[in-house]
Amino acid sequence: MADLEKLVEELSSLSVLEAAELVKKLEEKWGVSAAAPVAVAAVGPATATAAPVPEEEEKTEFDVIIKDAGPKKIEVIKTIRQLTNLGLKEAKDVAETPGSKVLEAVSKEVANDAKAKLEAAGAVVEVK
To answer: Pick from 123, 59, 58, 68: which is nearest to 97 by CA?
Structure first.
């Protein structure tokens, strides 16, 4: 017979995705409905994954990242200089380096405004 304590410890260490996959496999193997196994399987992992829940809070700081300066590089450089305190050379370097952060840890409104201005200048921008 299996060591039940060891089995409980192993099940407790599963992530939510792993527990869901386990439930599906047990359903197939035993030919049962998901209603009862989900409740039983979710008990162990739910307590193990209760700590990361605060990470799911809404983000308050965003980075504006330039993916590509596009065909109007000079307009993009001018816009970068308007949004930041960078000099001409630094703004040019940011515009020419895909993945460069134009702004870091700014509010959602500021990030979206900067994104709109950079896209209007012809750049491809991402807000993370």
So the answer is: 68
Q: What pTM was estimated for this model as a whole?
A: 0.53
Task: Quick: pLDDT tens for 46-66.
Answer: 544 455 555 556 788 899 999
Number of domains the chain is built from: 2
- Indicate whether 94 and 75 sit together in one domain: yes
Which DSSP state fits 128?
-
Residue span of the structural domain in which 34 resides: 4-55
CB atoms within 10 A of CB 55: 6
As a whole number of Å, the CA-based R_g of the chain is 25
Whether residues 87 and 48 fall in one domain? no
Strand ranges in 2-80 using DSSP code E only, listed in sequence order: 62-68
